[in-house]
Fold this protein.
Amino acid sequence: MTESESLPFVFGALALGYLFGSIPFGLIFTRMAGLGDIRKVGSGNIGATNVLRTGRKGLAAATLVADALKGTIPVLVAWRWGVEAASVAAMGAFLGHLFPVWLGFRGGKGVATLIGVLIGLKPLAAVAFAVVWLAVAFGTRYSSLAALTASAAAPVVLWLLDEPRMAGVCVIMTALLWWKHRENIERLLARTEGKIGSKG
């Protein structure tokens, strides 16, 4: 570990990432739009998918972009301290989104933020994520299955790109993302999961 990757810088990167990641944009945007508390709508999630259930596509798109950027920005800032700091900032942002202190540690499922941190860490891995997501979503029409598959592919891609530190961090983020999607997994296995475009 170099001087710029010493513990103070790493912990600073972790804190920076967490603070960015814990900003609940879905909740902020819906309240600003006069729609109340997004946690009382649909699944109760603060992410873009649940914001879309309000019928406001623009708000959902804004939430998606903002949730991705809150992963990208701290990673790009942390790069000045090295790859380890950038990887730790990525983990911090992801944890912040999943477990925001401001909301009693009950946050989103992490898909948009994972894409955002991948953009900051290794853009090619983010492209691979998007390609896998689109392929699975187009083939099955299951958004959750697409996210689960793409997240599982991400650490493999990072490893193949000779980024073992990033791959290791991504394995943890993927495991957490799968855990947050445990109810979706149960519905997929039971064949009761809603498909893209369905009204159910």
